């Protein structure tokens, strides 16, 4: 790279696990870094492993990073991890659906209990008795008024 210092730089080994990249070691020698990355790539906990070369660019006065090795693309997850992730997803979806059904059942039961309370024995009988007395009173009042007219 033009303008990049001729110093060799540092090789950092990074692993991808639990949704983020994490540096695990640094080497001065490229082959040592790649060898360790290949060993780590065999570990099923890591979806991917990469080696990044970091070198200081004197012309631009900044560090430049370049990936020199990568075990696999994240899109190509290991099949056993894909299956495990799918099972967990289906489990979460099932749990959420069961929870929504339970909440709905609780709301329905609460409404039923409310209706039962509204029409409970004593309250219902008292309400009906008062209505009957009101209708009877109005009827007798009208009858008295009609008889008083003649």
How many helices? The count is: 3
Order of SSEs: EEHEEHH
Strand content: 15-25%
Residue windows where pLDDT falls under 50 for at least 5 positions: 1-6
- For the record, give the distance between the C-alpha atoms at the N and C termini, rounded to a whole number: 121 Å
Radius of gyration: 40 Å
Major β-sheet annotation: 4 strands, antiparallel
Shape: rod-shaped
Counting helices, strands and paired strands, the structural category is alpha+beta
Q: How many structural domains are formed by the residues? A: 2
Name the helicity range. Answer: 40-55%
**How do the strands of the widest beta sheet line up side by side?**
2-1-3-4
Number of strands: 4
Average pLDDT works out at 82
Describe this structure in words.
This protein has 150 residues and is α+β, with helices and mostly antiparallel strands. The chain folds into 2 domains: 10-76; 80-144. Helices cover 54% and strands 23% of the residues. The chain has helices spanning 30-41, 79-118, 121-149, and strands at residues 10-17, 20-27, 48-57, 62-70. A 4-stranded antiparallel β-sheet has the order 2-1-3-4, with helices on one face. A hairpin with a 2-residue loop joins strand 1 (10-17) and strand 2. The chain is rod-shaped. The termini are far apart. The relative contact order is 0.09. The model is unreliable at 1-6 (pLDDT under 50).
């Amino acid at each position: 790279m033009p303008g990049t210092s001729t110093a060799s730089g540092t090789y950092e080994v990074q692993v991808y696990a639990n949704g983020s990249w994490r540096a695990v070691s640094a080497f001065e020698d490229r082959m040592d870094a790649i060898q360790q990355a290949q060993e780590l790539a065999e570990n099923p906990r890591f979806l991917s492993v990469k080696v990044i070369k970091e070198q200081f660019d004197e012309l631009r006065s900044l560090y430049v990073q370049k990936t020199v090795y990568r075990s696999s693309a994240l899109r190509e997850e290991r099949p056993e991890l894909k299956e495990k992730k799918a099972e967990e997803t289906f489990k979460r979806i099932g749990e959420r659906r069961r929870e929504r059904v339970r909440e709905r059942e609780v709301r329905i039961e609460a409404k039923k209990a409310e209706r039962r309370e509204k029409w409970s024995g004593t309250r219902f009988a008292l309400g009906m008795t008062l209505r009957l007395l009101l209708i009877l009173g109005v009827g007798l009042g009208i009858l008295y008024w009609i008889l008083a007219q003649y």
